[in-house]
Specification:
The structure is a single chain. This protein is mainly alpha-helical. 56% of the residues lie in helices and 6% in strands. It folds into three domains: 10-50, no CATH class; 60-251 and 284-375, Rhopdopsin 7-helix transmembrane proteins (Up-down Bundle), CATH 1.20.1070; 408-563, Zinc/RING finger domain, C3HC4 (zinc finger) (Herpes Virus-1, 2-Layer Sandwich), CATH 3.30.40.10. The protein has helices at 2-9, 12-18, 59-90, 96-99, 104-124, 131-139, 141-161, 177-199, 205-238, 294-322, 324-327, 333-357, 384-392, 396-407, 441-450, 477-480, 483-509, 513-548, 562-565, 574-577, and strands at residues 36-39, 42-45, 49-50, 56-57, 251-255, 275-279, 426-428, 439-440, 468-470, 551-553, 555-556. A hairpin with a 2-residue loop joins β1 and β2. The longest helix has 36 residues, at 513-548. This is RING-CH-type domain-containing protein. Residues 404-470 form the RING-CH-type domain. The chain crosses the membrane at residues 59-86, 107-129, 141-160, 172-193, 213-235, 302-321, 341-361, 486-507, 513-534.
């Protein structure tokens, strides 16, 4: 009876719209709440909304993105903790306070963690926040993204401009610290101004939306500036391969033998015969091509271009949101939904880029983003051309004597068996002298295969000279994949298949959107981790196969005789002189 009384008190026209009696004229109740389009009396909602009148949030949309952002935050938090623990374990006198000191890597983890948490909190339940809080939480993602990107730019700027700084150890900004702080003060001042305008100012919803679009445009301008410098320094360091990290002015004192004579001009200053000072000028010739790690260089370039491309897409989307009043109503609903989904996916990709390039928490000195010297196989204190010239000034007689002494007792420094015939010839592949000067070809190649994961594996660990190698016509995959690699690959592929099958079965059995999204998100996370490990496993196998196919060039191990080094002048007798 009460329900009948309520129906009689309502407007008859609204009842007709509610029960679809007047649906024949193609209109929808409340104009689909302003969140969709009406087609033949049926509301087609925007991707963020659901329901017959588009008045409730789309649960699947928000749960999916919230799950991804929270998983991303969890990954960053775990990597941050592992980074702190790894640094603590490397200390001679462990100190938690020193392990937690601010470094570039830790700050990047923390910033991305906050950005993922903020965006995940928004997608968890946007209706749970008030209008001002919801808009502020939505916009807080971009200042944090600007902080992470500007930190990378400042670090690369120091790498390019500064010299005599060792980048192998975790550290923070030095010369560019004030610039980084100033830029972030401007960024977070905009966020504070947006929060004050949308939260405490007495403005209407239309005005709040207008202010939000204006501030989004400001974030887009700042992000565009960051991308410009990101590309400038990235191209200089990782494409042109030049900068202060290559030009280090060092002074090295090399003790020489007392038998080494000093060659000096009469007018020059007297030099110490026991030591020779070698100076490397800052404007020395570029490093030779053979010390460039091509694989690492291409990976660095791919990572640089991928992040720049995604940042440019985010800038374009922010500008489009700023000008949404001019185009959104003119574009079909289907296109607007795809626009929103692609926008959110690219935002995830931009944040995901940081933990991907900072994956190696245990050895941050091996990260190309934080140590551009990873693109070099070996950075000597002197260019090889100068080293060769200085070695040529040694006394040839003493050098020949040293070679003679070493050649009479040559043994392979790996197997110590000169009689073996199944390991190739005995060669001298480097500039070492003495007991470690000679090695069997196949013994050395097997040694290089086992240490192929190291960036400078094709260099002698003693004298530092590069081995002269010849590339094989094809890779030796038989030695690339060991039993351990096959076992790991099988386990990874099995895990990927099981996770995908488990997610598919869960989605087929359960109809709850929350359970489905959790199953899909968990499967995607497992697939991501497995693909990562599978890629690393394949790269290691490829390096082993490539090194196994190399042919090492070196001097033969024959024994030098006195006739090769000493010329004896025997005077002729008078009888011989007439012949």
């Amino acid at each position: 009876m009460e329900s009948m009384m309520k129906l009689t008190t309502q407007n008859p026209l609204s009842l007709l719209f509610k029960f679809g009696i007047m649906g024949w004229n193609g209109t929808c109740a409340d104009n689909c709440s302003g969140h969709g389009e009406c087609h033949n009396g049926t509301c087609l909602c925007e991707i963020q909304f659901d329901g017959p009148e588009c008045h409730v949030p789309n649960l699947s949309y928000y749960v999916a993105f919230a799950t991804v952002f929270f998983l991303l935050a969890l990954i960053c938090l775990i990597q941050l903790v592992i980074c702190i623990v790894a640094e603590w374990q490397r200390m001679k006198a462990p100190s938690l306070l020193r392990a937690c000191r601010v470094t570039t890597q830790k700050l990047l983890y923390f910033v991305v963690f906050l950005a993922a948490i903020v965006r995940g909190a928004y997608f968890t339940s946007p209706a749970a926040f008030e209008e001002g809080w919801s808009r502020s939480i939505m916009s807080a993602y971009y200042p944090l993204l600007l902080s992470g990107s500007s930190l990378v730019v400042c670090f690369w700027a120091e790498v390019f401009h500064l010299r005599d700084i060792r980048w192998e150890k975790p550290q923070f900004l030095s010369k560019s610290f004030l610039g980084f702080v100033t830029f972030n003060i401007i960024t977070y001042s905009l966020l504070l101004a947006e929060f004050m305008t949308t939260r405490f100012a007495n403005t209407t919803l239309e005005e709040k939306s207008f202010y939000t679009h204006v501030f989004n445009g400001c974030y887009a301008v700042l992000l565009f500036i960051v991308v410009i410098f990101f590309l400038i320094y990235g191209v200089e360091v990782f494409f042109k391969v030049r900068g202060g990290f290559l030009l280090e002015t060092t002074v090295t004192t090399i003790a020489t033998s007392s038998r080494t004579p000093t060659h000096s001009d009469p007018g020059s200053e007297s030099a110490d015969p026991a030591a020779t000072r070698l100076f490397v000028s800052a404007d020395s010739n570029p490093l030779p091509q053979q010390i460039i790690n091509t694989s690492q260089l291409h990976q660095s370039r791919f990572g640089l271009l991928s992040q720049a491309f995604m940042l440019i897409i985010v800038i374009a989307f922010l500008f489009s949101e700023t000008l949404s009043e001019f185009w959104k109503k003119k574009v079909p609903l289907y296109s607007r939904n795809w626009h929103d989904i692609v926008f959110r996916v690219v935002e995830i990709g931009v944040a995901l880029w940081f933990p991907c390039v900072l994956w190696n928490c245990m050895s941050p000195e091996q990260l190309w983003i934080l140590n551009p010297k990873r693109i070099l196989r070996k950075l000597d204190l002197e260019p090889p051309s100068k080293q060769a010239g200085q070695e040529g000034t040694l006394d040839k007689a003493s050098q020949a004597t040293d070679e003679d002494d070493a050649c009479f007792s040559k043994d392979c420094w790996i197997c110590y068996d000169n009689d073996r015939q199944d390991v190739g010839p005995l060669i001298q592949p480097c500039q070492c002298r003495g007991d470690v000067s000679s090695v069997h070809h196949d013994c050395l190649r097997r040694w290089l295969v086992e240490s192929s994961a190291s960036a400078d594996s094709l260099h002698c660990k003693v004298c530092g000279s590069a081995y002269q190698v010849e590339q094989g016509t094809r890779l030796d995959w038989q030695h690339g994949f060991t039993a351990r690699h096959w076992l790991q690959t099988t386990a990874i592929v099995t895990c990927m298949c099981v996770s995908a099958a488990g997610a598919w079965v869960t989605i087929q059995i359960f109809e709850d959107p929350m359970i489905r999204m959790l199953a899909a998100g968990s499967a995607l996370l497992i697939q991501y981790v497995c693909v990562r490990f599978l890629g690393l496993n394949t790269v290691v196998a490829y390096q082993r196969a490539k090194v196994s196919a190399l042919s090492i060039v070196g001097g033969s191990g024959h024994v030098a005789t006195i006739s090769e080094t000493v010329a004896v002048d025997i005077p002729k007798t008078p009888a011989q002189a007439h012949i």
